[in-house]
Amino acid sequence: MFTKRELEVLNLIAEGYGTEAIAQQLCRTTETIKSHRKNIRVKAQRSGDTLTSLSVFAIMYIKKLAESNEKSP
Predict the structure, then answer these.
(1) Where are the domains of the chain?
(2) How far apart are CA 50 and CA 70, in angstroms?
(3) Are 1 and 52 in contact (CB under 8 A)?
(4) Which class does domain 4-71 fall in?
């Protein structure tokens, strides 16, 4: 569903990083990170969501992903 980079961005959002901090962490521009955020919203069908609700989505998604990875052999 999400690209590797989008998952990295989601993970950093879940950790509480803002756009500028994510850009620095991933050595990308803030515009690139904004684009990733937009793509995440579209793919998650959350296009009208605020930054806060995207953060909540990121936390829940990363948690669910981690739980499913724990169940895999």
Answers:
(1) 4-71
(2) 30
(3) no
(4) mainly alpha
State the CB neighbour count (10 A cutoff) for residue 39. Answer: 15
Q: CB–CB of 29/23 below 8 Å?
A: yes
Q: Find where tokens 């955020």 sit.
A: 37
> pLDDT grade, residue 47 (50/70/90)?
low
Longest CA pairwise span in the chain (Å): 38
Q: What is the pLDDT of residues 9-46, one digit of tens each?
A: 999 998 999 999 999 999 999 999 999 999 988 888 87
Helix/strand/coil percent split, the chain, to 5: 75, 0, 25
Q: What is the pTM of this model?
A: 0.77
